[in-house]
Amino acid sequence: MALYNENYFLILFFAFLGFQKSILQLTTEERVADLIESMSVEKKVAQMFMVEIGSITPEEVEKFKIGAILNGGGSFPYKKKDHIVEDWVKLADEYFLASIKNRDKARIPIIWGTDAVHGHNNLKGATLFPHNIGLGATQS
Fold first, then answer.
1. Least packed by Cβ within 10 Å: which of 6, 31, 51, 113?
2. Gap between the Cα atoms of 115 and 82, Å rounded
3. What is the pLDDT of residue 126?
């Protein structure tokens, strides 16, 4: 009897699978329209926020469905000034996973913004370059 139930389930599964249009068959415009239609007003609004990493945790990104984060001047992973590169990678992974977790149909990955106009001064040991205004002032 169990084998019969499993076969019945598989037949139904593959029958219904054939009726769905694959995401790969959608044009970009159709995919965007599909995502927008599936999102509540709250999710649409949250997608427009970019919050500084010192002010939001990955758990809050998941809870509030935030669309973007920023590491600006003076931000460090886990608020540790003596961080290493692996801390940045771990934090980026945590934000990414939080952004696509439990988002129903709209699993939109988070956008990470970096304030690095003259190098990554937030990364311990990174090279800093002169600001563009400083380069322009050299007149060469």
1. 6
2. 19
3. 81
- Asked if residue 77 lies in contact with residue 87, where contact means CB atoms within 8 angstroms, the answer is yes
Q: Which long-range contacts (CB under 8 A, 24 or more apart) does 98-102 make?
A: 98/58, 98/59, 98/61, 98/62, 99/61, 99/62, 99/66, 101/62, 102/62
Does 83 have pLDDT greater than 90?
no
Q: Indicate the DSSP class of residue 71.
A: E
Indicate if the pLDDT at residue 59 is higher than 60.
yes
Q: Are strands 50-52 and 68-71 parallel, antiparallel or unpaired?
A: parallel
Residue 102: how many other CB atoms lie within 10 Å = 9
Whole-number pLDDT of residue 117: 79
**3-state DSSP helix/strand/coil percent for the chain, to nearest 5?**
50, 10, 40
Q: Are 92 and 99 within 8 A, CB to CB?
A: no
Contact in structure between 46 and 83 (CB atoms under 8 Å):
no
Closest CA to 94 of 73, 75, 110: 110
